[in-house]
Amino acid sequence: MERKEIRLIALDMDGTLLNSEHVVSPANQQAIEAAKEKGVHVMLSTGRSLLTSQEYREALKLDYHITVNGSEIWGPTGEILERQNVPFSDIELLYQLMEKHQTQYWAVTEEKVWRNEFPVDADRHNWLKFGFQFETEDVRDALLKALEEHGGFEISNSHPFNLEVNTLGINKANAIKKVCEKLSITMEEVLACGDSINDLAMIREAGVGVAMGNAQPIIKEEADWVTSSHNEDGVAKAIEKFVLK
User: Fold this and answer.
1) Which of 89, 125, 187, 213 could be 109's S-S partner, Cβ–Cβ 3.0 to 4.6 Å?
2) What is the C-alpha to C-alpha distance for residues 51 and 187, in angstroms, rounded to an integer?
3) In whole angstroms, what is the distance from residue 122 CA to residue 75 CA?
4) pLDDT per residue over 94-144, tens digit each?
5) Could you report the average pLDDT of every consecutive run of 10 residues in the chain (245 residues)?
6) How far apart are CA 14 and CA 139, in angstroms?
């Protein structure tokens, strides 16, 4: 069956659009600009918060913007369209698991990314995501077991040795679907590029799911195509192949 023409490109940031120096290469910039000139929408779909991704969006002059793995959806003029918080009772549980397994951690509120620290008035904050960072597979497996037994969580990662926890149902694919509704297009008209488990849903559900050359094995298995790595202009090559032709 012939694929539909791509009308929206959704790009993960770390390990995908950004190289190892956290820079968007000139080739990636040029491909994005060429796609925009063709009338294709381009957006970031990232696990990062708005605070740590906004400068890239502004530099590339992109419209829609998905942050914190889909917890937030931002509109073309920078307005918040949707936000899904993690209940504080769940944050308390995740913090207790962190203490039990002695992991490093980070957690995202609407105002800040907390790294190995926790606010005194934690219950007064609006939480969006909790992340565990660890050094062994044993710790990962124990955390996964505890999280799955509790239920109610969307569990992913942005690196083989971390786990990212959002509220169940919050993922990049579901956020992209909501943007598609705004644009009156379907997921079949989406090109999605990513490298980690938090990209898996959008890779599976997009019309064209592209795995980076540096992607985790399951992402490559599920993708429609594997491009080169984030240090070899992999995003540009995907855009050239499926959008610019």
Assistant:
1) 125
2) 27
3) 28
4) 999 999 999 999 999 999 999 999 999 999 999 999 999 999 999 999 999
5) 88 98 98 98 97 97 97 96 96 97 97 94 97 97 97 96 97 98 98 98 98 98 98 98 95
6) 24
Q: Is 12 a catalytic residue?
A: yes
Map tokens 């598609």 to a residue: 180
- For the sheet with 153-156, list strands across it: 113-115, 104-109, 127-133, 162-167, 153-156
Strand partners of residue 9: 42, 191
Distance CA 87, CA 110 (A): 13
Contact assessment for residue 96 and residue 89, using Cβ atoms and an 8 Å cutoff: no
- Report d(CA 196, CA 244) in Å as an integer: 25
